[in-house]
Amino acid sequence: LRFDEKVRVVVFKSEVKGVFCAGADLKERAKMDDAEVGHFVKRLRNLMDEIAALPVPTIAAIDGYALGGGLELALACDLRVAASSAKMGLIETTRGLLPGAGGTQRLPRCVGIGLAKELIFTGRQIDGQQAFSMGLVNHTVPQNNEGDAAYQRALALAKEILPQAPFAVKMGKLAINRGMEVDIASGMVIEGICYAQNIPTRDRQEGMAAFREKRPPQFIGK
Description:
Elements: E1 10-12, E2 19-21, H1 26-30, H2 34-52, E3 58-62, E4 65-67, H3 69-76, E5 79-83, E6 87-89, H4 103-111, H5 113-122, E7 126-127, H6 128-133, E8 139-141, H7 149-161, H8 166-179, H9 184-198, H10 202-213
Parallel strand pairs: 1-3, 2-4, 3-5, 4-6, 5-8
Antiparallel strand pairs: 6-7
Helix pairs in contact: 2-3, 3-4, 4-5, 8-9
Family: Belongs to the enoyl-CoA hydratase/isomerase family.
Pfam families: ECH_1 (PF00378)
Keywords: Lyase
């Protein structure tokens, strides 16, 4: 996906009705020794980092349970859409654990430190509407009979992104992600670097030409 230039947006969905991702298999985990658990969680954390580092926008379609590592997967995505009936939570403390695949870092960056601490300390599960009210998800929708309402909304969101200039979107994502890690003055420098890379693109020239000619632009990602 990272190197396929035809990919514009990635949507993560589940093929299991009622479950986005239920997290680690604790029965499997119970058979591991301490060293194996550490290695397993490190690999899981690396996977989430790989997802977060995808250059194109990513959307998690949460149509059911997103618990523990399942919510960490959703947090690794850029955008999240949830059915109002979905259940989400970093429930690790209820199992004698703590989030180990990015949850302690990505959740506070998403909802703020106070709410993140409350959710992690209590291991509380929240529904899609509660998640929307605290900014954990971008959109919440009533579940439909097919059980894929969040996926359908995620597709609609993806279709809003698709017509936009692919390289500009990638640079926007990079500027935001890198800028959030530094002070605002350094962030402005990062934005300037990303903007400079976009200036010579054919898509920028196409965007200007389309505006002058009062027609929709035809971006090619170059």
